[in-house]
């Protein structure tokens, strides 16, 4: 049996009454996911074997969190580490916390020098994180835009409400690494109370994004309580939830959780697939549990070197998302967050990928390519407008040919 992770679980997660579960065993060991274990090649089956545990344990999301891989010794039990990964665990332990669910570890393949594993690049610390010429702790200046703790208010009609601190995987490119230094942020009652009070007193706020950390790393009871309080605010029309659990811990997204969310329509979920390798029968089932309950699911990716920075990789991801009923929403150029320079491709690569997508894949599958700034999101795209000739617009079409659209300029 693998050693249990030393991940620091906030005391509120285990002692606060909102987490004392009255939920059925099926909530933690969902039968629909367990059925996938009958397929010998499934991650449920292979992952349970890799971690030397029962499939019942492996599909239990709380077991997954308790067994997060957080150091090199644990990681080496399931995959052969390269030197920069072994040293990365050790040298970065006081810089940014490491933690990977057994499920996500089970997606990793062996290191190939000229063909890096996109899962490893996202989940395992590397010494390359120690060198960054442009990285800063808070690239979006979120603290400056937080009128009360953990409520980020940039746009007049919406806020991001950071209620969670724990994550199934601590993604190496995370732009909220700074929160790793703080404690007691995970479903903290006083933070939630102050945040809801702020939202209720600002009638311009019609859209609340529940984020973190990952807000799905809480009990169904806690989530039900939180969402019901936000839905009770008369001027809040839209509730959105940002979560990566369908990708990194799909067993958390049960039919019971989806049923609870569906009580509060209109409610939306944005998730975060970065590569087609993350689309598995398990993650597809997690998505199905949501959309089958009428919950639209959008996807926000980050353009990452070695993960999805070619047209072929991005095309495969976008087509795969549509197959599981996920709408591509944003493709973010990575933030200049400290420790991520080795993962940040040039802007030109992103523009070229987006240009090639247009006309080669259905427009429904094409996300907006975005640079996020402290003042909000800015779309970036190839400029197809070549000029104006009288009342005619001169364009470069999607095939690179010149087109004159007559009589549209006044």
Account of the 3D structure:
The chain is α/β, with parallel strands linked by helices and 410 residues long. The chain has 3 domains: 11-130, no CATH class; 143-378, Aldolase class I (TIM Barrel, Alpha-Beta Barrel); 380-410, no CATH class. It is built from 17 helices and 12 strands. The strands form 2 sheets. A 9-stranded mixed β-sheet has the order 1-2-3-4-5-6-7-8-9. The chain has a 3-stranded antiparallel β-sheet with strand order 10-11-12, with no helix packed on it. Helix 11 (189-200) links the parallel strand 2 and strand 3 (207-211). Residues 1-22 have low confidence and may be disordered.
- Spatially, the strands of the biggest sheet line up as 1-2-3-4-5-6-7-8-9
- Biggest beta-sheet profile: 9 strands, mixed
User: What is the residue-mean pLDDT, rounded to a whole number?
Assistant: 92
CATH architecture of the largest domain: Alpha-Beta Barrel
Overall spatial form: globular
What is the CATH topology classification name of the largest domain? TIM Barrel
- If you compute it from the alpha carbons, what radius of gyration comes out, rounded to the nearest whole angstrom? 22 Å
Parts with pLDDT < 50 across at least 5 consecutive residues? 1-22
CATH class of the largest domain: Alpha Beta
Q: Which H/E pattern describes the elements?
A: HHHHHHHHHHEEHEHEHHEHEHEHEEEEE
Q: How many domains make up the coordinates?
A: 3
Class by SSE composition: alpha/beta
Number of helices: 17
Helix content: 25-40%
Between the first and last Cα atoms, what is the distance in angstroms? Answer: 73 Å
| Beta-strand residue fraction | 5-15%
- The CATH superfamily of the largest domain turns out to be Aldolase class I
- Total beta strand runs: 12
């Amino acid at each position: 049996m693998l050693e249990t992770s030393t991940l620091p679980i906030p005391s509120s997660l285990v002692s606060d009454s909102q987490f004392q579960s009255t939920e059925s065993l099926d909530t933690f060991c969902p039968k629909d996911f367990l059925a996938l274990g009958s397929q010998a090649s499934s991650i449920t089956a292979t992952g349970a074997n890799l971690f030397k545990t029962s499939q019942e344990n492996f599909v239990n999301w709380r077991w997954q969190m308790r067994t997060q891989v957080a150091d090199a010794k644990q990681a080496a039990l399931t995959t052969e580490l390269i030197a920069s990964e072994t040293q990365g665990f050790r040298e970065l332990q006081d810089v940014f916390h490491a933690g990977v669910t057994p499920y996500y570890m089970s997606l990793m393949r062996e290191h190939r020098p000229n063909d890096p594993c996109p899962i490893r690049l996202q989940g395992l610390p590397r010494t390359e994180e120690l060198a960054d010429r442009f990285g800063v702790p808070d690239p979006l200046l979120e603290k400056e835009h937080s009128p009360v703790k953990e409520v980020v208010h940039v746009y007049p009609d919406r806020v991001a409400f950071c209620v969670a601190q724990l994550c199934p995987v601590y993604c190496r490119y995370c732009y909220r690494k700074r929160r790793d230094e703080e404690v007691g942020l995970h479903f903290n009652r006083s933070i939630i109370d102050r945040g809801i009070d702020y939202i209720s007193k600002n009638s311009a706020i019609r859209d609340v994004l529940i984020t973190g950390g990952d807000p799905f790393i809480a009990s169904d009871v806690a989530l039900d309580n939180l969402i019901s309080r936000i839905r009770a605010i008369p001027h809040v029309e839209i509730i959105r939830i940002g979560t990566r659990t369908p990708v990194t811990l799909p067993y958390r997204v049960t039919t019971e959780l989806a049923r609870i969310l569906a009580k509060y329509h209109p409610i939306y979920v944005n998730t975060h697939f970065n590569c087609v390798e993350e689309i598995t029968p398990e993650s597809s089932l997690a998505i199905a549990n949501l959309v089958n309950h009428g919950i639209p699911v959008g996807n926000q990716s980050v353009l990452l070197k070695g993960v999805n920075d070619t047209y072929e990789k991005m095309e495969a991801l976008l087509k795969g998302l549509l197959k599981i009923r996920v709408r591509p929403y944003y493709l973010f150029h990575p933030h200049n967050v400290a420790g991520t320079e080795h993962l940040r491709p040039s802007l030109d690569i992103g523009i070229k990928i987006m240009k090639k997508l247009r006309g080669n894949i259905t427009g429904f599958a094409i996300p907006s390519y975005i640079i996020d700034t402290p003042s909000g999101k800015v779309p970036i795209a190839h400029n197809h407008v070549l000029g104006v000739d009288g009342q005619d617009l001169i364009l470069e079409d999607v095939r690179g040919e010149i087109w004159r659209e007559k009589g549209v300029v006044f």
